[in-house]
Design goal:
Strand order of the largest sheet: 2-1-3-4
Radius of gyration: 64 Å
Strand content: 5-15%
Structural class: alpha+beta
Distance between the termini: 170 Å
Shape: rod-shaped
């Protein structure tokens, strides 16, 4: 078979021309279109990635803000709880202090009232006892009892020592002198008293005798603002003072003991009892 090289050359030239024409008018526009589409897709992907990054940033910012808000809310809640607890404790403490103060005042008032009641009752009993004693002695004060008192009074005159004796002697010399007794002394007792005064205070003015219609039996010598006395009233007054002092000390001891028991037991003490 013979090769027609002219035909082969023509076909080869035609193929080369076809390739150039395709590259020039077909392949290049296709490549440009593909490149443009790839660029558009890449731009869209980049925009989507940017949007995603923005969304992630916004999400992170939201989470951070939410965490900060939660932390701040927890802090405020904790502070509010602490403040409320402190306020509650303060109010409870104030209420407790007010209650303790009120209870202390009530206990003090009860102790004072109990002490005053006890002291009043004891004073009334004491006054009644001494009133009855004075009345009994006044009822029993007959002439024989006054005679015995005159003897006791004369003995007290003899036993009187300085400086009271010197002052009374000067007053008796200046006169006048009065001897006062619970009932009228018989003449024998008056004479005995005059003799005792004259023996103890020579040169003294003779006394005048009077009768006092009050109080228990007794005898008193008075001259110039000075006096010497002996009477059942004096003994009763001394006894009454001693009893009053003992009762006051007993009341004070009872109140102190009640306060001590209250301090140890933490309870309101009972009112002190009146001793029999």
């Amino acid at each position: 078979m013979l090769i027609d090289w002219f035909t082969v050359g023509a076909q080869a030239l035609n193929f080369i021309i076809l390739v150039w024409l395709m590259k020039r008018f077909l392949y290049k526009p296709v490549q440009d279109a593909i490149a443009a589409r790839e660029k558009r897709i890449a731009d869209q992907i980049a925009a989507a990635q940017a949007l995603q990054a923005d969304a992630e940033a916004l999400g992170k910012d939201f989470r951070d803000r939410s965490a900060a808000f939660d932390a701040e809310r927890a802090g405020l809640l904790a502070q509010a709880t602490a403040d409320a607890n402190a306020q509650r404790e303060r109010l409870i403490d104030e209420a407790r202090q007010a209650a303790d103060a009120l209870a202390a005042k009530r206990r003090d008032a009860l102790r004072t009232e109990a002490g005053q009641f006890k002291e009043t009752m004891l004073a009334a009993a004491r006054d009644e006892v001494f009133a009855i004693t004075r009345k009994a002695l006044a009822d029993l004060a007959d002439a024989s009892l006054e005679a015995r008192m005159a003897d006791v009074f004369c003995r007290k005159l003899r036993e009187l020592t300085d400086p009271a004796a010197a002052a009374l002697a000067a007053a008796l010399k200046a006169g006048p002198a009065v001897v006062r007794s619970g009932i009228e002394l018989p003449e024998a007792q008056r004479a005995a008293v005059r003799a005792a005064i004259a023996a103890r205070f020579p040169g003294s003015v003779a006394p005048r005798f009077e009768t006092a219609q009050h109080g228990a039996s007794g005898i008193e010598l008075r001259a110039g603002g000075h006096s010497l006395a002996w009477s059942v009233d004096a003994y009763l007054a001394s006894l009454e003072a001693a009893v009053s002092e003992r009762l006051a000390a007993q009341v004070a001891n009872d109140v102190s003991a009640a306060a001590s028991r209250e301090a140890h037991a933490g309870a309101t003490p009972a009112a002190p009892t009146v001793p029999a």
